[in-house]
Amino acid sequence: MPRKIPAVGQIYGSWTLVDATPVPSVSGGQTRLNYLCQCVCGQQKLVNGSNLRRRLSTSCGCLRDTRTGVRSISHGMSKTPLYAVWRTMLQRCDKPNFIQYKDYGGRGIKVCERWYKFENFYMDMGPPPFPKASIERVDNDRGYEPENVVWADRATQAKNKRTTVRFDFAGSSLTLREWSEKLGVKSATLASRIYVYGWPLERALQPAKTEATV
What is the dihedral of CA 193, 199, 202, 207, to 10 degrees? Predict the structure, then answer.
């Protein structure tokens, strides 16, 4: 009977499958199929498919008996708002049974490889700058990556849902990405000026050589 092919986003204990392409290895004269998985702590590792199905491997080893006093999440941030934002981002893109998957992973939106590790996401984004802050992609047709993500509030996200927002200034009507190319300023910088700092367009949409200091 052929082995059942696992699906990306499938959960095995604390493991989440992030790549369903099998990576063969030989052990004891037998060929075993391994799959790239990510633990809840952010660690990625190739795990034997049989061990996943039989629940012989349920985490990267970060989980310990609570009697030892060792934290279950090595970075100690599993209950923070930032960790919740990170987990939701991954579920949107990688978990087909997640309620928002069709609007994200289902239409090709992906998380950059660097951000599959929580510590890297934290290093790039920092803590939420205000209560109930969420992450917003500057270009809705691109994925979650440092150059395309800024912190935003719900009102900002509501304005940018699936439609491309255009900004009218100096006789031009362009998207942030188009303004970025025209001005030589990063899209994320322009988005922060407009959405986070609330700058008027005549100040926010300035070329790189006359870029104002935030």
Answer: -20
Cα angle at 100 between 123 and 103, to 5 degrees?
95
Residue 206, C-beta contacts closer than 8 angstroms, at least 6 positions apart = 183, 185, 212
CA–CA distance, 29 with 32 (Å, rounded to integer)? 10
Residue 44 in tokens: 């990625």
Segment 41-74, tens digit of pLDDT: 677 889 998 888 887 887 776 544 332 333 334 5
The Cα 140–Cα 128 span in angstroms is 21
Is 186 within 8 Å of 138 (Cβ atoms)?
Answer: no
Q: 119: Cβ–Cβ under 8 A, 6 or more apart, which residues? A: 42, 75
CA of residue 136 relative to chain centroid, distance: 11
| Interior/surface letters 191-206, b for 16+ CB within 10 angstroms, e for the rest | bbbbbbeebeeeebbb
pLDDT in tens, 24-39: 888 777 888 999 988 7
How far apart are the C-alpha atoms of 144 and 135, rounded to whole Å? Answer: 9
Helix, strand or coil, per DSSP, at residue 48: strand
Distances (CA, A) of 214 to 123, 167, 193, 204: 20, 20, 8, 10
Read off the DSSP letter of residue 99.
T
User: Residue 31 CB: number of other CB atoms within 10 A?
Assistant: 9
